[in-house]
Design brief:
This protein folds into two domains: 270 residues, Glycogen Phosphorylase B (Rossmann fold, 3-Layer(aba) Sandwich); 211 residues, Rossmann fold. 44% of the residues lie in helices and 19% in strands. It is built from 17 helices and 18 strands. The strands form three sheets. It has a ten-stranded mixed beta sheet, sandwiched between helices. It has a six-stranded parallel beta sheet with strand order 15-14-13-16-17-18, with helices on both faces. The longest helix has 21 residues. The structure holds 6-O-phosphono-alpha-D-glucopyranose (G6P). The site of 6-O-phosphono-alpha-D-glucopyranose has 11 residues, from helix 2. The site of 6-O-phosphono-alpha-D-glucopyranose (G6P) has 11 residues, from helix 2.
């Protein structure tokens, strides 16, 4: 989920220069890819937050250079990153604590996040949070408008910043604006629970191009724009164009990806090979042991308690796996200001402890929980070690862990159990499918993977690796840049206008 080694290749830089000559790439995304703090003796410390957006965009900006605008509660910061070999800049906007709480903890993560994941009962919308959300989105736009030269490419990310394109236009920005929505776009009937949905849609539709992870999200967004705002829709072989108040916005499904080459290099690296036997020994993994692995932010959308219930079911149903199966769960704390997240952490710890009490024996602890973020090079070692990776999200925009696991399996072995409701499932159909709300089905999926023949494992992994290699982070960027270019040039307007 994180990356921290510089990337020397620069195909993305060349592509940017080709399609947008002279442009600087300006990214707006709430979370900064780096945090600088100071130790007791005033020494600099750097943290690298977890999450799909920073994991995907940091390697890109290392190649293209440019500016990343982020926000935090407290004082502003100007950073040159990565600290070991700076290649781009980060401007962290300082937001007063209470405003940040309304914008981030409130509207973004207690409202839009659960709602877009269709977990409507967890969603709350408060007017004061909306005021804060608007204020911070405006602050982002003001900073970018002050920085951007004509022709620069502005690329805004995710649900925290839906109003930024609209504010940018209000501040007089006429240049290209792209937007990528990283999480699922909900069905219209669910979106209607958002009191301010029309303003969110209007803000987004000021972008020239909007990308989503799946066709389902494109369809849901298009349908919402038509039903809520009456936008006109043009479809052509090259995609969908929405026409609203004289502005056209192209929308497309362009699933995000990872730096496949980097992950493969790390997987083959000498230190990875060296660590594999060391870890096997440290965790008492024997020849016939089976290691299952989960890597997630500790978020209720990831289905971690359900996954542990599934593992417990697996141990009851298959006594032959006792003393053999180990579940390693990396659960990175996140959004701990929100009580749902704190409760989740308690429930995951309790479930892990209950399984260990029920099944554990001297020399065998079935579940091991690691509650902190790991650097990509460390994760890759775990990916290489794990016989089965389990991604059981209830809903997930995409899920980059699934792709990282596959990319790390340069040995062609390993099994991926993947939730049918994760965006990544559309590309990774050769995974062992998993139905995330049923402990029996989860156990079944794990068992299918564990007991699969070496031939089946290899065949599936080969197909998965081909899929991951077909769409790398460079492919992702090139499709987006081409889409924005085409949209800005007005080349994408379709011929047939059909209702959705
Ligand atoms: C998901 C969201 C990102 C977010 C990340 C981490 O991947 O799509 O926008 O940055 O989670 O969450 P956090 O709230 O810590 O930034």
């Amino acid at each position: 989920m994180t990356t921290d080694t510089p990337n020397d290749g620069s195909p993305s830089r060349a592509l940017l220069a080709d399609l947008f000559p002279g442009a600087r790439l300006i990214i707006a995304a709430n979370r900064s890819p780096f945090r600088r703090t100071y130790g007791l003796r005033g020494e600099e410390r750097w943290e690298r937050p977890a999450g799909g957006v920073t994991a995907a965009l940091d390697p890109l900006l290392r190649q293209t250079g440019g500016l990343w605008v982020a926000a935090e509660s407290g004082a502003p910061q100007e950073l040159k990153v990565p600290p070991e070999d700076p290649s781009y800049e980060v401007a962290v906007l300082g937001v007063p604590e209470e405003v940040y709480r309304g914008y981030y903890t409130g509207y973004s993560n207690s409202g839009l996040w659960p709602l877009c994941h269709n977990l409507v009962e967890r969603a709350h919308f408060r007017s004061s949070d909306w005021v804060a959300y608007r204020q911070v989105n405006r602050q982002f736009a003001a900073r970018i408008a002050a920085e951007a030269r004509p022709g620069d490419l502005i690329w805004v990310h995710d649900y925290q910043l839906a109003l930024v394109p609209g504010y940018l236009r209000q501040f007089g920005v006429t240049g290209p604006i792209a937007f990528f929505w990283h999480i699922p776009w909900p069905p219209t009937v669910v979106l209607r629970l958002v009191p301010e949905r029309k303003m969110l849609l209007q803000g987004l539709l000021e972008a020239d191009w909007i990308g989503f992870q799946t066709e389902e999200s494109v369809d849901a967004f298009t349908s919402a724009a038509r039903r809520e705002l009456g936008v006109r829709i043009q479809r052509s072989a090259r995609g969908v164009t929405l026409l609203y108040q004289g502005h056209r916005t192209h929308v497309a499904s362009v699933p995000i990806s990872i730096d496949v080459q980097k992950v493969e290099e790390l997987a083959r690296a000498e230190h990875t090979q060296r660590l594999l036997p060391e870890l096997r020994q440290r965790w008492q993994l024997k020849e016939d042991s089976v290691l299952l692995l989960g890597v997630d932010r500790l978020d209720y959308t990831k289905g971690i308690p359900e996954r542990l219930d599934g593992f417990s079911r697996l141990l009851s149903r298959y006594p032959s796996l006792r003393r053999k199966a180990h579940f390693l769960q990396i659960a990175v704390p996140t959004r701990t200001e929100i009580s749902d997240y704190r409760r989740l952490a308690v429930s995951v710890r309790r479930k892990a402890a209950a399984i260990n009490r029920r099944f554990g024996e001297p020399g065998w602890q079935p579940v091991r929980l690691i509650e902190h973020n790991l650097r990509l090079d460390r994760l890759v070692v775990l990916y290489r070690l794990a016989d089965v990776a389990v991604v059981s999200s209830l809903y997930d925009g995409l899920n980059l862990v699934a792709k990282e696991y596959v990319a790390a399996r340069v040995d062609g072995d390993g099994c991926l159990c993947l939730s049918e409701t994760a965006g990544a499932y559309h590309e990774l159909r050769s995974a062992f499918p998993l139905s995330p709300l049923s402990p029996e089905r989860i156990a079944e999926s794990m068992a299918r993977a564990i007991f699969a023949s070496p031939h089946e494992r290899r065949e599936r992994m080969q197909a998965l690796r081909e899929a991951v290699r077909r769409n790398t982070v460079d492919t992702w960027l090139s499709r987006i840049l081409a889409g924005v270019r085409g949209s800005v040039d007005g080349q994408l307007s379709g011929v047939n206008e059909t209702p959705v």
